[in-house]
Write a structure and sequence with these properties.
The complex is a heterodimer of chains A (339) and B (77). Chain A has 339 residues and is an alpha+beta fold. Chain A has nine helices and 15 strands. Helix content of chain A is 30%, strand content 24%. The two termini of chain A are 13 Å apart. Helix content of chain B is 51%, strand content 0%.
Chain lengths: 339, 77
C-alpha cells in the first residue's frame, strides 16, 4: 500500500489586483511591462476579515464537492501557512471543526512557505505508509497580502492570496510508489532575505516597527511588512534548484527525458524561464501557471497541477517532478507518479 | 566575455537601443536599471559566464564598467 495524490482543488479570493491598477499606482511601470517581466496579469487578494482558515475551508469544500471524499473520511489534516488566523490555536483545529471532520482525526499546522506543499506530501506519505492515517487533507493557505505594504511594488506585483486542498490517500493499486523519492534542503543563513521582521516574539510590533521607510528603490515598508531581497532569492534558487533536480534524478534513476512534466514553485516567470533554460527542460514539459493568480506561496504547485489536469496535460501513469523553494531558505523536490 | 557582448546584453536587459551604451554611464542614470534589471544581470552572469554575482556587489556598482568588472572571476562576489 502506497500514498498517492487523489484530487486537488483550490480557492482564489474574489477581489483581484490587476496590472492596470498597479501601473496607475506605480508610475514608472506600465501594465505591459509588469505582465512581461513577472508573467502575472492578476493577483487575488483576501478580503478584510478573510483569513487563512476561511480560504482553506473553501478549498476543502471544493475538493469534497468533486466527490473525491467526504469530510467524514478525512483522518488527518496538515495545514501549511505562515499567515495563520491566530498565534494560537492551531488553524488546522479551526478547519477541522468548521468542515465537520471527525474528532478522531489528527490535525496540525506547519510553518513553511514556497517549499511547503512538497514537504506536506512527504509528511502525508509518512503518516499513510506507516499506517497512522488513510486519508490526509493537505491544505496550503496564505494571505501574504496582509503583510505587504501598499507602496512596495517589489512584492505587491508578485504575490497573490490562495488556498489549495490536496487529498493524499492510501492507494491499493499496483504501480507504486506514487510519491518520492524526495530531496529536502534547508539553509537558515538566508532567513533575512524573505521575512516579516516584526510582529512575533523576537520583535513585537510597536510604534517603531510600524514606521514606514523608503528603501531607495522606490518602495516603502515598515518592519511589520513583508520584505524580500529578490536578487538574493534569485541567487539562492540558482544554487539550489538545479542541484536538487539533479539529485532527485540520481535518486530516481531517471533522466530528464523520462519526466513528463516539471512543476516548479511559480515564483515569477523570469526566474522560472531562466531555471528551465539552465536545466535544458523543453518548454512543453515545463509548467508555468501563474498568469491569473501570481505567486501564491505554498499553493503554486497544486494550483499549477490542477490547471494542467484541467487542460488535459496530465494523465495517469505520468511522472511529475515538483520542486518548491523559498523562504527559510527551505527547498524540497519530489517525484510524483500520477494515478 | 568581451565588453561589447556585455554592453549589448545590458542594452537588451534595460530595453535600450542597440549600440547606445558605452560603459562609462552611471547606472542611476540608465532608464530601466531597476530591480528586474538586476535579476537580468544575475541571470546573464549565470548563463553566459557561469558566475554567481553577489547582489551586494551589484548594489555597490556605480557604473556599467563597475558591473563589467564583476564578470571577471577575481572580483565577482
Amino acid at each position: 500500500m502506497f500514498a498517492a495524490i487523489r484530487r486537488i482543488a483550490y480557492y482564489l479570493p474574489a477581489q483581484t489586483l490587476d496590472n492596470a491598477q498597479l501601473a496607475a499606482e506605480f508610475e514608472d511601470w506600465t501594465a505591459e511591462k509588469i505582465s512581461e517581466k513577472t508573467g502575472i496579469d492578476a493577483r487575488h487578494i483576501a478580503a478584510p476579515g478573510e483569513c487563512v482558515s476561511d480560504m482553506a475551508i473553501a478549498a476543502a469544500r471544493k475538493l469534497f464537492g468533486t466527490g473525491a471524499c467526504a469530510a467524514g473520511d478525512v483522518d488527518f489534516i496538515l495545514l501549511c501557512t505562515q499567515s495563520p488566523d491566530y498565534f494560537l490555536p492551531t488553524t488546522a483545529c479551526l478547519v477541522q471543526h468548521a468542515l465537520g471532520i471527525p474528532a478522531t482525526a489528527g490535525a496540525l499546522d506547519f510553518n513553511l512557505g514556497c517549499s511547503g506543499w512538497v514537504y506536506g506530501l512527504g509528511l502525508a506519505q509518512g503518516l499513510i505508509q506507516t499506517g497512522q492515517a488513510r486519508r490526509v487533507l493537505l491544505l496550503t493557505s496564505e494571505t501574504y497580502s496582509k503583510y505587504i505594504h501598499a507602496r512596495d511594488k517589489s512584492v505587491r506585483t508578485i504575490f497573490g492570496d490562495a488556498a489549495a486542498a490536496t487529498l493524499v490517500e492510501a492507494h491499493e493499486g499496483e504501480g507504486g510508489p506514487f510519491l518520492g523519492p524526495f530531496v529536502y534542503g534547508t539553509d537558515g543563513s538566508g532567513a533575512e532575505n524573505l521575512m516579516v521582521p516584526a510582529g512575533a516574539m523576537r520583535e513585537p510590533s510597536n510604534e517603531t516597527t510600524g514606521r514606514v521607510e523608503a528603501d531607495g528603490q522606490g518602495n516603502a515598508r515598515s518592519r511589520d511588512n513583508l520584505y524580500m531581497n529578490g536578487a538574493e532569492i534569485f541567487n539562492f534558487t540558482l544554487k539550489t534548484v538545479p542541484a536538487s533536480v539533479e539529485e532527485l534524478l540520481r535518486r530516481s534513476g531517471l533522466s530528464l527525458d523520462e519526466v513528463d512534466l516539471f512543476v516548479f514553485h511559480q515564483a515569477n516567470q523570469y526566474m522560472l524561464q531562466h531555471l528551465r533554460k539552465k536545466l535544458k527542460i523543453p518548454a512543453e514539459r515545463f509548467s508555468i501557471r501563474m498568469r491569473a493568480c501570481g505567486n501564491t506561496v505554498s499553493s503554486t504547485i497544486p494550483i499549477a497541477l490542477a490547471d494542467e489536469l484541467e487542460a488535459g496535460n496530465l494523465h495517469a501513469g505520468q511522472r511529475v517532478m515538483a520542486v518548491g523553494f523559498g523562504v527559510g531558505y527551505s527547498w524540497a523536490a519530489a517525484l510524483l507518479r500520477w494515478v | 566575455m568581451s565588453k561589447d557582448r556585455f554592453l549589448r546584453a545590458v542594452e537588451e536587459i534595460v530595453e535600450a537601443d542597440a549600440g547606445t551604451l558605452q560603459g562609462n554611464e552611471a547606472l542611476s542614470g540608465i532608464n530601466g536599471w531597476d530591480s528586474m534589471a538586476v535579476l537580468g544581470f544575475i541571470a546573464f552572469a549565470d548563463s553566459e559566464c557561469g558566475l554567481t554575482v553577489a547582489p551586494k556587489s551589484i548594489v555597490a556598482a556605480k557604473t556599467l564598467d563597475d558591473l563589467y568588472r564583476l564578470l571577471t572571476p577575481a572580483t565577482a562576489g
